[in-house]
Design goal:
8 strands; single chain; Thiol Ester Dehydrase, Chain A; 3 helices; 44% strand; 138 residues; alpha+beta; two-stranded antiparallel ribbon
Length: 138
């Protein structure tokens, strides 16, 4: 099963609400697009910082999921965002996440979000905790 198929098996309602569309996925890279819809904007009609952070957080989590041992889960424990430029309403942004560290207990991902013209909108570095599989037998 390839990485896109693995991600498709994980239902992510918030990612669907944001309109995130994964375009490429591998163990060391996830790329996705998100339309800058008016509902995701602040005034003056540019992508809200929280939407940018949510987009990046989703991609880092997806990258972690692709690298988890069987049965393990993940959650974000730290995130740092640098905002560089606005993304206007009506455009599309692209996010690309790559690992800085893939350990047994934590993974650190860097996500670059750019406009269709290649302008850097934000850089996000986040740490994902690897959650051990839960023993469900009682």
């Amino acid at each position: 099963m390839d990485a896109l198929e693995i991600l498709a098996q994980h239902k992510l309602p918030f990612a669907e609400l944001l309109g995130i569309r994964v375009t490429a996925a591998a163990l060391d890279r996830v790329v996705a697009e998100m339309a800058v819809q008016p509902e995701l904007c602040t005034s003056p009609a540019v992508l809200h910082g929280g939407a940018i952070m949510a987009f990046a957080d989703t991609l880092g989590a997806m990258g972690t999921v692709l690298n988890l041992p069987p049965g393990a889960g993940t959650t974000t424990i730290e995130s740092k965002t640098n905002f560089m430029a606005p993304a206007p309403s009506g455009t599309t942004v692209t996010g690309e996440t790559t690992p800085l560290h893939r350990g047994r207990r934590t993974m650190v991902w860097q996500t670059r979000i750019t406009t269709a013209q290649g302008r850097l909108v934000a850089v996000v570095i986040q740490t994902q905790l690897v959650l051990a599989p839960q023993n469900t037998s009682a």
